[in-house]
Amino acid sequence: RQEIGPETPRSDVRMVSVDDAYEMVVNGTIVDAKTMVAILRLKSGTLDHLND
Asked: Domain ranges in the chain?
């Protein structure tokens, strides 16, 4: 098993609200592009059917 170094991306999975996730995108906590797009689409209502 490899050690995680400073250059190795590390992912943590947590359940948060859409509003909290949006704030994490805005403040730079979330930097993964696919995750950012999904959160921004949810926030804008484009994926509103998933936000129930």
From this structure: 18-50
